[in-house]
Amino acid sequence: MYFENTNLENLTADQELIESVMNKNGLECDGGWDYERMTFDRRFDTREGRFYLRVFAYAKSGDVGAHDAVLTLMKPVIGKYYYPHGVEYGDGEVFPAHLVKKCEEILTKVKLDLEAFQIHA
Questions:
Q1: Looking at the DSSP assignment, which residues form a beta bridge with residue 57?
Q2: Among 4, 96, 104, 114, who pairs with 119 as Cys (CB 3.0-4.6 Å)?
Q3: Which tens digits make up the pLDDT trace of 85-98?
Q4: pTM of the predicted structure, to 2 decimals
């Protein structure tokens, strides 16, 4: 499920700043990168299963591996994890309302933290 109207999509900033804001809000990039992309994840284990809030980013310029990229954020998504296949984001998935609300709160906080650095779309 993609989150609409978060105002995060297409925000662009230095990699170090985005990583700092994401980490502050519990979104980590543990190996979820290559030289042109990064994926920031926050895992949720609930009674309904394991879910991941994900914010994807791509390098508009620079190199992620060298930590000198300028990143552009993409539309945030929540997916359900299925062992051993991975994360599914499809329309047929059911996401608990309490989890969706929590994810929306986190995304709002990320947006506010980026705005504190004058980062706007």
A1: 38, 73
A2: 114
A3: 999 998 888 999 99
A4: 0.93
